[in-house]
Amino acid sequence: MTQKQRWAGVSVVLYVLFVIAAIWLNFLDPAKIGLEWTIFWYFTAAGGCFYFYFKNFTYRETVYYAKKLGLHKEDLVPLIPKLKANQDVPDPDHPGFLSPFAKVPFSVLNALTEQLEPKAKAQGIPPFR
């Protein structure tokens, strides 16, 4: 099972659990909050699950390339020249199970992946799956 499939599966399970909880606990009953708000919250939950999937997959991809290239957190910081005080880079030596949602933004992950992927390809490292 690839990382993409694993995180997609986890996201689908989270959404199904949300739907089951909404039906079982009856907190999104259209008679109580209206049909528009019910639909809104179902779509919002789906969007949150997609964000969860995409953020964790991107985080894992960045950590994978950094580990394969033998880079540490201190090596990744100079690769992002305009790193703000409230932002951080992933720590390949100690990656968390879930990506840190607030501290490591997509802009940092995307910039790192854009730099690390060609280096990995040049060294013959297999692509992230």
Please tell me about this protein's structure.
With 129 residues, the chain is mostly helical. It has one domain (3-122). It is 64% helix and 0% strand. It is elongated, with a radius of gyration of 18 Å. It starts with a helix and ends in a 7-residue tail after the last helix. The model has no long low-confidence stretch (mean pLDDT 90). Keywords: Membrane, Transmembrane, Transmembrane helix. The chain crosses the membrane at residues 7-27, 33-54.
Write the layout of secondary structure elements.
Blueprint: H1 3-25, H2 30-33, H3 35-68, H4 73-76, H5 106-122
Helix pairs in contact: 1-3, 3-5
Give a quick rundown of the structure.
With 129 residues, the chain is mainly α. The chain has one domain (3-122). It has helices spanning 3-25, 30-33, 35-68, 73-76, 106-122.
